[in-house]
Amino acid sequence: MRTLPPSQSPFAPQPPGSGTTHLPPPSTSNTPVNGVPVGDGPLEPEAPPEPERRKLRVVDVEDRACLIGSLLAGLSLTWVLYSRILPTEGTLGFIVCWWLFFTAFYTLITGLRRGRVVLADRFAVILAHSIAGLVGIALVSVIGYTLIRGIPALSHWNFFSSDLRTAGPLEPLTAGGALHALAGTMIQIGMAIAVTLPLGILCAVYLTEVGGRASKLVRSVVEAMTALPSIVAGLFAYVVLLIGFGMRLSGFVAAMAISVMMLPIIARSSEVVLRLVPNGLREASLALGATQWRTVWSVVLPTARPGLATALVLGTARGIGETSPVLLTAGYTTYLNLNPFSGPMTSLPLFTFKMSQSPEDNYISRAFGAAALLLVLVLLLFAFSRWMAGRGRSGAR
Amino acid sequence: MQDPAVTEPVVPETLVPRRLRASLTLSDRIFRWVARGGGALVLLITGGIGVFLAYQAKPTLDAYGWKFFTEQSWNPEANQIGVAAVLFGTIVIATIAIAISFPVALATALFISEWAPRGLKKSLVALVDLMVAVPSIVYGLWGFFLLQPQIIHLSRWITDWFGWIPVFKVDTDPDAAIFDGATYASSAFIAGIVVAMMVMPIACAVMREVFDQTPPGEREAALALGSTSWGVVRAVVLPFGRGGIIGGTMLGLGRALGETIAVVMIVSPLFEINWHVLQSGSITISSMIALRYGEASGSQLNALMAAGLVLFIITLIVNLIAGFVVSRSRSGAGTEI
Predict the structure, then answer these.
(1) Residue B24: per-residue pLDDT
(2) Are residues A128 and A188 in the same domain?
(3) A279 to chain B nearest CA, in Å?
């Protein structure tokens, strides 16, 4: 048996506190903020090159044979029992029974050969693999189903180039489209970003750089408000702007509702990112005689830029897909409206929702088309944030 | 709990940063005031919501008192307003969602941190994050058009076998010649499954984050003592990550309570306490707001705001507990949720 390299040995001398502050492996750097991972910027120190990892589990021929044998035995037994003997039918039940028999066989054989301890291990491994596979299937089915059902609508160019003003429920997919919803989404999310980005980052700068007695209060309130259900944000905008100030349903009100929802999310994740900027950089800048304003502008914010971008992009992905605030505030229309300050303005999630409530097949196809478009937008934003985070990591060195 | 001295590394006095004192230049003063202004504005907007909700909800709570929490129907015309049914529905759907998503999230997080091939790990983490980002309307469409026609058969199967448990009972003739799918559709159970799909990745991300921080030394100690990979998980990873498991689940619960659009798409609104979760009909606070805001005016809006306030307070408490549990646990010191 090889000896452990000294850095990994539990008995090697370690700096104080390393039992709890041991550096996590590099992959843990995507710290999620309310499920939103923020960027892994150039902030963490370079981890020492990892020593070669040993294989903990040995898989020999017998294990493989055992696995394949159990799979086949489970399949055969299920086929005999489920399809031939018992009065049962259905693909789902078949697969579930197959899985149950396979697990039973596999654990039984392992238990006979290797004893109880290995049995528990194999059972846990099978369970974790199966459930993770199930999650993977679910994710693929969510994305695949939406995209596939969206193709009939998306494959006509008019879906992107015209609105729905002339296309009634019975019009074929070759007439009318979702241009108005796409434009509405872009305008609303653009306005929401214009409001939340400066405010959110300013608030984060205040919390990390200026501080003071009130910062604790601001931080707790912002943290608490990330719990705000989106429908309540919509209701707030509805009551204040529409009832209180007497505005009409419009893109502006919808953008404000989205902003109210996005602001705490962006402020909080930006703060986490800014807090990760090493203090040494700030002190070096101050020691060179820079003012605090210069330090923040030229050192702190550029260092945190990839992380901030990731936070913004993921906050945007969250805001772009929210239906409930828009449902209350944007108003539904079939016309293209580019002026956010007058008249109702539909967005993609709202369009999807309204279309999906219709019994007409064409409208449902349009709903899936819009949902697929929205999904593609979110996927693009997501890929962009990954690319941004990756670029920040390599570009910083 | 362990000695606090163990959790907080002792920092030698020389490492404590010096206080920097300097007379501020004009630009710094402006910068500080602008930043403070930004903070104050954010405080005003975000804090304003809570205060505003409470202020708007007050007339309703004053007028109806405790009856607001015990009345089931929501008939503003008949002056009957209460959140008993909607609160019940909210909690039932969130409970179903958590009951389904908790084991799935735990197993997935363990799979990613323990058993996934090393090369795949990064992509798997990204996939879970992607699941968080998928809009809820997409999950709603998926649940309504793809999942529901399949799941009603599962509902019927559960009723057939476990119908003697009151919760799983469905008021329909099980021996009817034609399968009555509509009774099983639009139920709290199906909505709960769809919401579980949404909150699972949130819980999973937090759990995985915490599991990855397990000290390698302790893992190796367990392996050196001869434990299997499951033994390592049971003896080291799970106890270490307990805070993250609880916190992640609570965070998911907070999200499940406030989910709107998928629930609106799936359940058929029913303003009474429906214990039969497999049977059609339920309602949550958020879906009630989405359904009723349009026809509401004046005092009815206040009542909706009061319901929203109740939802917000519950979500807030759940999230605060989640944050507290994670930050207090041994593993959560470096984790942000």
Answers:
(1) 73
(2) no
(3) 9
**B214: phi > 0 → left, psi -120 to 50 → alpha, else beta; which?**
beta
Q: Would you say residue A15 has pLDDT above 90?
A: no
Per the structure, the complete domain to which residue A129 belongs is given by 61-154
Residues A299 and A380 in one domain: yes
Residues of A with Cβ-Cβ distance to B299 under 8 angstroms: none
**Is A199 touching B (CB cutoff 8 A)?**
yes
Q: Which amino acid is at A365?
A: S
Q: Indicate whether A70 and A214 sit together in one domain.
A: no
Contact A304, A277 (CB under 8 A): yes
The pLDDT of residue A49 is: 63
Q: Report the number of distinct structural domains present in chain A.
A: 2
A13 lies in a domain?
Answer: no
Nearest to A128 among B111, B137, B154 (CB): B111
- CATH number for the domain spanning A290: value is 1.10.3720.10
Is any Cβ of chain A less than 8 angstroms from the Cβ of B209?
Answer: yes
Task: Give the B window 263-322 contacts with A, CB below 8 Å.
Answer: 265, 286, 289-290, 293, 301, 304-305, 308, 311-312, 315-316, 318-320
- Quick one: which H or E segment has residue B81? strand B80-81
Do A256 and A336 lie in one domain? The reply is yes
Which of A154, A169, A196 is the endpoint of a domain? A154
pLDDT digits (tens, 9 = 90+) for A142-183: 999 999 999 988 888 888 888 877 777 777 777 778 888 889
pLDDT tens readout for residues A20-38: 334 344 444 444 444 444 4
A182 touches chain B (CB under 8 A): no
Which tokens sit at A41? Answer: 């910027």
Model ipTM value: 0.82
Q: Which of residues 66-95 of B touch A (CB under 8 A)?
A: none
Closest CA to B192 of B273, B285, B91, B107: B91
Are the beta carbons of B276 and B170 closer than 8 angstroms?
yes
Give the per-residue pLDDT at B174: 63
Helices and strands in chain A, H and E counts = 15, 2
How confident is the model at residue B138, as a pLDDT? 92
Contact between chains at B42 and A368 (C-beta distance less than 8 A)? no
Chain B residue closest to A120 (CA)?
Answer: B230
CB A164 within 8 A of CB A183: no
Write out pLDDT tens, residues A268-306: 889 888 988 888 999 999 899 888 889 999 999 988 888
CA-nearest of A379, A28, A386 to A394 is A386
Which of A193-197, B23-27, B333-337 reaches the highest mean pLDDT? A193-197
The answer on A128 and A195 residing in a single domain is no
CB contact residues (below 8 A), chain A span 346-365, against chain B: 349, 352-353, 356-357, 364
- Arithmetic mean of pLDDT over chain A: 79
Q: What is the mean pLDDT of residues B132-149?
A: 90
Mark which of A137, A154, A171 sits at the end of a domain: A154
Q: Report how many Cβ contacts below 8 Å link chain A to chain B.
A: 341
**Residue B16 touches partner A, C-beta closer than 8 Å:** no
Residue A48 lies in a domain: no
- CB of B185 within 8 Å of any CB in chain A? no
> Is A351 in the same domain as A202?
yes
Q: Does the residue A301 lie in any domain?
A: yes
Which chain A residues are within 8 Å of B255, Cβ to Cβ? Answer: 35
What pLDDT digit, counting tens, does each position of A214-227 carry? 888 888 888 878 87
For residues A194 and A88, state if they share a domain: no
Residues A218 and A287 grouped into a single domain:
yes
How far is residue A44's CA from residue B152's CA, in Å, rounded to a whole number? 50
In a domain, residue A173? The reply is no
Domains of chain B in sequence order: 65-334 (1.10.3720.10)
DSSP per-residue string spanning B173-224: -TT-SS--HHHHTTBHHHHHHHHHHHHHHHHHHHHHHHHTTS-HHHHHHHHH
Q: Are B31 and A323 inside 8 Å of each other by CB?
A: no
pLDDT band at A50 (very low <50, low <70, confident <90, very high): low
